[in-house]
Amino acid sequence: EGPFVYLSLVGSVAHSDGLIASLWKEYGKADARWLYLDPTIVSLEILTVVLDGLLALILIYAIVKEKYYRHFVQITLCVCELYGGWMTFCPEWLMGSPNLNTVSWLYFWVYLVFFNGVWVLIPGLLLWQSWTELKKMHHKGTNVGKKSP
């Protein structure tokens, strides 16, 4: 999303050239807000690049080094991603989806539903993983002081 933010702030994706711009132009066929400076989208993407990018780096470190705060960071990052997805699409849905191409099978089902669904599925699975790991740690911690038969 970093290149998208940059292209949006210095001009627009629609008027930019290059490989990255062409990828965003293609997605813009499904969601026109990505072609021009949509303040909500660009604001969310700035937050995603800065906050989520930093959290992702911290999470990678926490996983590799097996840090105690790994699941806290993972939960925070997942919630940020889910919130960002909600705030990207809910206002659009409330307005009747004027910028979304819901007519084309490819743009609707592949670009909008599938590709954006990945940004819901993966954080959802990682939240579930953190939940089960925290539950295991809690049970292990509560059983430490009990006598075994």
From TrEMBL:
It is a multi-pass membrane protein. Residues 1-127 form the EXPERA domain. The keyword Transmembrane applies. Keywords: Membrane, Transmembrane, Transmembrane helix. Coiled coil: none annotated. The chain crosses the membrane at residues 41-64, 71-94, 106-128. It comes from the Eukaryota. It is found in: Membrane. GO terms for biological process: sterol metabolic process. InterPro entries: EBP, EXPERA. GO terms for molecular function: cholestenol delta-isomerase activity. GO terms for cellular component: endoplasmic reticulum; membrane. Belongs to the EBP family. This is Emopamil-binding protein-like.
